[in-house]
Specification:
Elements (H helix, E strand, L loop, with lengths): L3 E11 L3 H4 L4 E12 L2 E7 H7 L6 E11 L1 E7 L13 H14 L4 H17 L2 E7 L4 H14 L2 E5 L1 E2 L12 H15 L5 E7 L7 H13 L4 E6 L3 H10 L6 H7 L7 E5 L5 H10 L2 E4 L1 H6 L7 H6 L3 E4 L11 H14 L6 H8 L1 H6 L17 E4 L5 H7 L5 H11 L5 E6 L2 E5 L2
Parallel strand pairs: 1-4, 5-6, 6-7, 7-9, 8-9, 9-10, 10-11, 11-12, 12-13
Antiparallel strand pairs: 1-2, 2-3, 4-14, 14-15, 15-16
Bound molecules: guanine and zinc ion.
Length: 433
């Protein structure tokens, strides 16, 4: 126990999915202690009992009055889109043309990409996000810049070069062969290095030719432990266009399925327009959904049906989808999720919200053996939240009766201001002020 450190706070983490196990899914300690040894979780429990167990030489950081939760996990975000976040007045297909593609063009420049990736990684940590599944741009150097920025900080992060070879600006196209070759080389260079992972990243079915989807499916078969990351069924006109382009496919999901891109470690953002057969297929494949409530509201895409996803036992985590989402704060995105689900008649409990951003997100990314909660041996990524970060939060939380109410107030009223500190592998990576 040479490198043991202890953190005293109110501690919350999920041991199961609240949709399955109810309140028993969350372990909470009003006065808790987290013990970290060598960057891994050693134990979590009530402070009085654990303090008796550790020696006087173990340093105890006192975060009493704060909430300590596992590092937040963003299951879908585009780092080049920090440049055009909050762009006015468009829906998906014209938004891509007017804003996303022009912004992504700049990422051909390695210097530009490096500076943006560095900024983005810093913003994630400020927001308490310790792991993310990230779209780069079509340029290989953009993925390299993101890997470098995450590696410098020791973040667990998965990214990939976007593949797109049709129905997008000609100067932003790769080809089936180039996407296969560049993705393969990036896998060989970066996948499994430190805490990094690769995601094969066809932008969406509309911007990849059949040949490109086939080539990426082949790559996915050759590297079964890399992720596949794409968009699925976000807006109705997009779904119609995909079905027109693939008349032999039963559904939009089926287009990915037929090309070998639906499997364990496939993560699809949005999934607003699925039917029950799609949900069964997604669940049985082991693929996952990134629920992107902020983005779905901003682009007017629709209201995600979380109860249906849970009913089908699909792995689901939260995604900010910046820049169609307007906040990197997963607290804010959980607040948006709550409002979306109110409109669906499904009240999101604070515990289910916590799950979407921690253990549920880790399960969606199939990283639950490493991150997502405080089980012994997990990597010690965690966030310290301040329930009195703003005068309004302080006022609201002064009458909160329990930890569930305090966490709920934080997700409805909080954002990066509520993140007091972010830890990676037991080391402080960000501290407010
Ligand atoms: N579908 C294809 N590309 C994108 C993108 O960049 N953002 C969103 N929200 N949807 C997409
Ligand atoms: Zn997206």
């Amino acid at each position: 126990m040479a490198d043991t450190r202890a953190y005293r706070a109110s501690i919350l983490h999920c041991v199961d999915d609240p949709a399955v196990a109810g309140a028993a899914a969350v372990e909470s300690f009003e006065d808790g202690l987290l013990l970290v040894d060598g960057g891994r979780i050693e134990a979590v429990g009530p402070a009085d009992a654990l303090l008796r167990r550790i020696g006087p030489d173990v340093p105890v950081t006192d975060y009493s009055g704060r909430l300590l939760v596992p590092g937040l996990i963003d299951c879908h975000v585009h780092y080049p889109q920090v440049d055009m976040i909050a762009s006015w007045g468009a829906r998906l297909l014209d938004w891509l043309q007017s804003y996303a593609y022009p912004a992504e063009r700049r990422y051909a420049d390695p210097e530009y990409a490096r500076a943006a990736a560095d900024f983005f990684a810093g913003e994630l940590l400020k927001n308490g996000t310790t792991t993310a599944l990230v779209f780069a741009s079509v340029h290989r150097v953009s993925a390299e810049a993101m890997f470098e920025a995450a590696r410098r900080r020791n973040m667990r992060l998965v990214t990939g070069k976007v593949a797109m070879d049709t129905a997008c600006p000609p100067d932003l196209r790769d080809s089936a062969e180039a996407a296969y070759r560049d993705s393969r080389e990036l896998i060989e260079r970066w996948h499994g290095v430190d805490r990094l992972g690769y995601a094969i990243t066809p932008r969406f079915a509309l911007t990849s030719s059949q040949q490109q989807l086939e080539a990426l499916g082949r790559l996915a078969r050759e590297f079964p432990d890399v992720h596949v990351h794409s968009h699925l069924a976000e807006q109705r006109d997009e779904v119609e266009a995909v079905l027109r382009g693939h008349p032999g496919s039963r559904s939009y999901l089926d287009v990915y399925g037929r090309h070998g891109l639906l499997r364990e470690r496939s993560v699809f953002a949005h999934c607003l327009y699925l039917d029950d057969a799609d949900r069964r297929e997604l669940a049985s494949s082991g693929g996952a959904i990134a629920f992107c409530p902020g983005s779905n509201l901003f682009l007017g895409s629709g209201l995600f049906d979380l109860a249906a996803a849970d009913g089908a036992a699909i792995r689901t985590g939260i995604g900010s989808d910046v820049g169609a989402g307007t906040s990197l704060s997963l607290l804010q995105n959980l607040g948006e999720a709550y409002k979306v689900l109110q409109l669906k008649g499904q009240s999101l409990t604070p515990w289910k919200a916590l799950h979407l951003a921690t253990l549920g997100a880790a399960r969606a990314l199939r990283l639950e053996d490493r991150i997502g909660n405080f089980a012994r041996g997990r990597e010690a990524d965690f966030v310290v939240l301040d329930p009195a970060a703003t005068p309004l939060l302080a006022r609201r939380n002064s009458t909160a009766r329990d930890l569930a109410e305090r966490f709920f107030a934080l997700m409805m009223l909080g954002d990066e201001r509520a993140v007091a500190a972010t830890y990676l592998l037991g080391r402080c990576a960000w501290r407010r002020n």
